[in-house]
Structure formats: C-alpha cells, structure tokens
Amino acid sequence: MKILVLGADGYLGWATCMYFSQRGHEVMGVDNYFRRYASIELDCEPLIPIPNLVQRAQLWRDLTGKRVEVVIGDVTDYNLLLDLFRRHQPEAVIHYAEQPSAPYSMIDREKAALTIQNNLLSTLNIAYAVKETNPACHIIKLGTMGEYGTPNIDIEEGWIEIEHKGKKDTFLFPRQASSLYHTTKIQDTDLLWFYVRTWGIRVTDLMQGPVYGLSTEESAIDERLIPLFNYDEVFGTVLNRFIVQAVAGYPLTVYGRGGQTRGYLNIKDTMQCVYLSATQPPQAGELRIFNQVVETFSVNELAEKVKTVGDRLGYQVEIKTIPNPRAEKEEHYYNPTYTGLLELGLQPHYLTEDVLAEMFRVVGQYKDRIHRGAIFRGVSWK
C-alpha cells in the first residue's frame, strides 16, 4: 500500500512510518516540527536526544535498506497537502498532525486558538484532499478516549442505540470533553462523520487512551530511532511521566484523590491497531470507530505499580498527592467497551512488572538529562 503519515515526527508518527515501511509499504511522512518547537519554547524538550525527521529517515534507510520519503510542511496549508496527495496517491492517510496536548490547549488564549485552528483545519483539509484526489482513500484519524469524558454509564464503541418514545435510532455516543484539546477531537469526529454521510468517504476513528513506552521493535535497531519521549506535564503521558519522576527522585504527581480512571496501551499496540485498521479498511460511506485501549487503571493504581517496581530496583519512590489543576471528576465510574480491534487481530502487550522495569532501565541511562523544572508547571484549567 501507499501510506501517507501526517505528523510523522511525533511520538507515534515516526514509529508508524517505520512499522509500515518494515512491512513493505510505500511510506511518505509529513511534519512541521510543531512538537519540537513547542518543547523548546516551553523548555521541556524530550528526554532522549534524537535526529530530526530527515536524518532519521536516512538512518532508517542506511540500517534497513527501506525508504521513508520525508516532507517538512504544514498540513493546514491546503495547497501543499493537495500536492502531496496528487504526488504520492495514498491508499490510506494516517492523521496524527494535531496539537496533541490537553495542558497545552489550556495554557492561554493564544495556544487555545492554535489548537483549534491546527486541529480542525488539518482535518478539514484531509477530507477535501481525499475527495478531490481519491475518494476511496481510507482516512485513519487518531481520536481519543477523552472525547467521551467519564459518563455514569458503560462507554460503547463509538455508537449507541437509543430508544425514545417508542422509536429507536443509532447515534454517536455522547461526548463531553475535559479540555479544549479533547473538544477539538470531538469536532474532528463530527467533521468526518458529516463528510462520510455527504461524500461517501471511508474513515476509521481510533479513540485511543494514553500511550506508554519508549520503543518499538523497529526502534530497537538503533536508539536514534526511538520516538520523541516527553516526560513533562505538557506533552508527557502519565505513566511515562511517573517513570521519569521515579528515576529522578521526584515524588509522583498524583492529581487530587487519584481515582481518575482511563484506558491505557503500549506504543507497540498502537502500531498494531493502526496497521490492522489500514489493512482491513471499512466500506465506502462508513465511519468505523474503535476504542483503542487494552487495560484500564486509575492514577493511584499506576502510581503504586511504579512504586513497587521502582523500590525493587533500588529507587526510593515517593507518591505525593497535589491539588488537581484540571477540571475533572477524581472518582467516577468507567467501563469502556474495546472489542473491535481484538476482533481484527490485536495481540495486546499488558502492563507487567517486566515492562515497567525495562522502562526504568532505559530512562535510567538518561537520568542526567532530566530537567526537574519541566516535570510540573501547574497549568491550570481555571
């Protein structure tokens, strides 16, 4: 297949480029280096120094003989995106090219505006580029479980059947986001659902939970191929942050009562999920939604797991509850359905003590690079 990966320099994007390339697909990766520039601006650069996207693509080719074509550009520029579609003629486009951080979207009005503009315009442009060049091209968009919020009912896989006054119909499951970033992801879904109904395009929307991990099978070839690994409050996911905090001797930052429960998955499983979606596409005129999680944990449960393994490895891990800077329920019901990807063939990697110990090992090699001042900035929703 010809695959177009948008947001190819990010935590998931580069790993996805390698994953498809390793399996013989023709990959083009596009990125504008937003995350790198934002990390520099906020003084919270990734833990592990890695080459830029062009250099990584060359390194990948040198090591494997396989090619990932790289374009540095902004997909909110429609003319640029349209040219890439015409030149590469993708059969599937994987859309990671969004501002990916809830805290970043809540810093100030400027960053809120950037989040809205970037996320919605990029999604709109992709829909139009597909319509104009190849309506059969499969759009795979990375959504988020955060779109659903924490309702007091089971979370279905994208859709819910409602009976009202003797009649039944099926609707998108109600969404109630907990940040502006998550709100833009809801609007992504609505935009794509509109164009699925209007133009008959095919879309898979992956409602992904927080991802953890430092490497994939492909990046194990050379540490310079490791994904961008942030550990700060703005761009780092919670388990990745906790591992770095434990190594640095920084108390694990549990917000409020720590009962916030979410669905999690290893970065290796993200690769599987995207690949399974691409190689088993939906029908034309279908919006297919998968809840992309493997296990659910509360923040307290994650903190205890990190402490158990960290203490065994000789780190004196402290857990500290702090006032919650976010506006969210700290104790709630949470029971999402996540069977669709398992039915496509997902082979999950579970969060074991061995997995945590390996994360400790890799992070420990870069202990001297940990910037303690970046770990917690107190970005407040209020």
Oligomeric status of the shown chains? single chain
**Order of the strands making up the biggest sheet:** 3-2-1-4-5-8-12
Structure annotation, total helices: 13
Shape: globular
Outline the biggest β-sheet.
7 strands, parallel
Unreliable spans: none
- The CATH architecture term is 3-Layer(aba) Sandwich
Overall number of domains:
1
CATH level 1 class label: Alpha Beta
The arrangement of helices and strands along the chain is EHEHHEHEHHEEEHEEHEEHEEHEHHH
Strand content: 15-25%
In short:
The chain is of the alpha/beta class and 382 residues long. Helix content is 39%, strand content 19%.
Would you write up a description of this structure?
This protein is α/β, with parallel strands linked by helices and 382 residues long. It has one domain (2-370): 3-Layer(aba) Sandwich (Rossmann fold). The chain is 39% helix and 19% strand. It is built from 13 helices and 14 strands. The strands form 4 sheets. Strands 3-2-1-4-5-8-12 form a 7-stranded parallel β-sheet, sandwiched between helices. Strands 9-11-13 form a 3-stranded mixed β-sheet. Helix 6 (109-133) packs parallel to helix 7. The longest helix is centred in the N-terminal third of the chain and has 25 residues, at 109-133. The N and C termini lie far apart (46 Å).
